[in-house]
Amino acid sequence: MYLAIFIFVIMIVILAMDIELNVKSADDTIKIDAKIGLIRFAIPHHRLIKKALESEQLKDKQKQKEDFKKLFKNRHYLNRLFKHSSLTMFYMAKFTKEELYLNPIINGVYLMVSNQIHAYFNHHFKIVDNSNIKLIYDEQYENIDYFICVKADLISILTAILIRK
Question: 117, 92 in Cβ contact below 8 A?
Answer without folding.
Answer: yes
